[in-house]
Amino acid sequence: MLAAHAIAEAAKGPALVAQAQLAAYNARDLDAFCACFADDVEVYDFPGVLSLKGQEAFRARYAERFRSEGLEAIAVHRAVIGSRVIDHERVWLEGRGKSAPVDLVVIYTVRDDVIARVDFIREG
């Protein structure tokens, strides 16, 4: 069983940052979303292929994605291990009624209260 202080620390650490970015993603609030990520954020596709680096490239990618009014993501399961948050996420790119969900694992590495690295693991 976890001690109360460990639960309290987890609630204001990496898990909170991960939840804040998920809420901003679902609201399609680009400024709030990008504020959850480091200026030098790196995004990788498994197995370790760098797909973008830096806030400018990150913002450009999500500005395009946020144009979809039906965009939605949920964390099906979340685990926190130190500075890393591992989410099993389910994403609808065009909305629940318009597109099939995409399941993926996302590993968020938090540094200085922002996400410094994102690793996506997708099927196929």
Automatic annotation (TrEMBL):
- All copies of the SnoaL-like domain together span 19-118
Q: Fetch the InterPro entries from UniProt.
A: NTF2-like_dom_sf, SnoaL-like, UCP030561
Superkingdom of the organism of origin: Bacteria
Which Pfam family, any one of them, does this sequence belong to? SnoaL_2
Descriptive protein name: Steroid Delta-isomerase
What species is this protein from? Glycocaulis albus
